[in-house]
Design a protein that fits this description.
This protein is mainly α. The chain is built from 16 helices and no strands. The two termini are 33 Å apart.
Amino acid sequence: MRDTPEDYGSRFERWDERAAVRVKPQPVMDPPAPDALYFPPELVPVLRHPLVAERGERAVHDALAQHLYHYLHFTVELEQLAIIPVAARIARGRSGLDLPERMRADAYKIVTDEAWHAQLSYDLIRQVEARSGVEWADAGTPAFLRRLDAVRRRLDPRVRGLERLLFAVVSETLISTVLTDIPRDRRLPGAVRDLVRDHAEDEGRHHAYFRDLLQRLWPALSAGERACVGPLLPAIVAAFVEPDREAAAVVARSAGLSREEARTVAAESLSAEWTARDTASRARTVVRYFEEAGALDDGATMEAFVSAGLLNNVRDG
């Protein structure tokens, strides 16, 4: 990779006064109100399926608790397996990019933030289990890891590793948009809202950092590197954005469905048509950033975005 510009506007100047790990208390679950929800039901597609809805309020309660567990576990796995390793390589000067020293120093802060987010998410799972009486059911390896491994296998061995760096860009610039509404939802327990709010505040800084990183990364790649990884960018976006059907089936099972019924509910609730629309909507921000960085200047890369249904959604908006 070629050298990158030195100019860098850090968002971490007052990190000691603002970061959750430095100044925010650990969220503690109070006894939930009788009508408390553990997650916004509007954000859980399997709840709209008749096989789940017909089972009543207790089934919905248990499914929402299970969905919260998978949301929190996804955070643990994302931070520990995808973001922290990338941020650590940046901090140690092993990313392949010649970055300003302040940018490397901020990467150390990101590592610290993300480790705290993972710890809090793990701890809240245990707290909610104790309060709700619903036991967390592990859905296995998160879908994003399987998808990212599939992208890696398609890459030329000489550029493997770029998929991890680009996935970090995707997830860190999109996750903050997922976190915006939950803290304002008064139906949820205070500890859930507090955790998501604190996470969102940290991720706002991370979003700006990784947007800046992308503007440095793409121009630093050789023409050959861009041609190799560019057409796979939509798959990297999808690795983060597309729903985890295995986890959705586990959520459906917690409502009292059989294994086969749960798989049917997950498949029908997260249909290919629904997934394509949802992915395009949720990916708009990072697709625009790829366009700004020049990634879509390559014809094959642009064609891949169009084929994936991602580009028109951005330009129409």
